[in-house]
Design a protein that fits this description.
alpha/beta, six-stranded mixed beta sheet, four-stranded antiparallel beta sheet, 10 strands, lipoprotein
């Protein structure tokens, strides 16, 4: 059996510890996601799914428990090591695309590759291939303001996958789109994920989309089931 791309074991997170406003968001949350597996994360608003994604993506730290990426223990890792792991192994997609408005769709996908040391010509070819794969190849030279919401989000998916991560983390990636566009964009995302074989954890309120994934995890009372 292959090593999980992402493994959380008994992760706990408390905000405002030892204060009257203390809130325990995660209470021993555990999960393991294998290469090629797409997992839905479903939870009510305020239940802690964004916190869990931030801990899984090494943007936040757990108070207790273990976080492993590709079998490598990241609990207690230095800021530099966490940054390197995020850059090499993890792609992020959010509800709002966060594309850089002054750059074209193509340039938004090229830039993270250049930051990772990829040659410009190689980065541009990779960006064009990704845009074509999600059906917006003809929009490569357009700035975000000239793209529809669905097109912008597909560009954001491409940017997240530009450096070939092993793990994709998405927080309500279609939550800002109408149902028809959401379905189209989600189909493009699943196509990319299946093609690349990476592991994905996707938070969503949309139960119909969740049902199209390999497995559904419910976050309830700080625990995953």
């Amino acid at each position: 059996m292959s090593e999980p791309v992402l493994a959380l074991e008994r992760v706990e997170k408390v905000y405002n510890r030892d204060l009257p406003s203390e809130v325990q968001v995660l209470r021993g949350a555990s999960l393991a996601i294998a290469p090629g597996e797409v997992v839905a994360l479903v939870a009510p608003s305020g239940a802690g799914k964004s916190t869990l994604l931030h801990i899984a993506g090494l943007l936040d730290t757990a108070d207790r428990g273990s976080v492993r990426i590709g079998g490598q223990e990241m609990t207690g890792a230095s800021d530099r090591r966490r940054t390197m792991a995020r850059r090499a192994d993890i792609g992020f997609v959010y509800q709002f695309h966060h594309l850089l408005p002054e750059f074209s769709a193509l340039e938004n996908i090229v830039l993270p590759q250049l930051a990772a040391g990829v040659r410009a010509r190689v980065a541009e070819a990779r960006a064009r291939d990704l845009l074509v794969s999600v059906g917006v190849g003809a929009r490569a030279d357009h700035r975000p303001s000239a793209l529809s919401g669905g097109e912008q989000q597909r560009v954001a998916f491409c940017r997240a996958l530009a450096n070939g991560p092993r793990l994709l983390l998405a927080d309500e990636p279609t939550g800002n789109l109408d149902p028809a566009t959401s379905d189209t964009v989600f189909g493009a995302l699943m196509g990319l994920v299946r093609e690349t074989g990476l592991a994905a954890l996707i938070a969503t309120h949309n139960l119909e989309l969740a049902a199209r994934m390999d497995r559904i995890l419910h976050l309830e009372d700080g625990r995953l089931a």
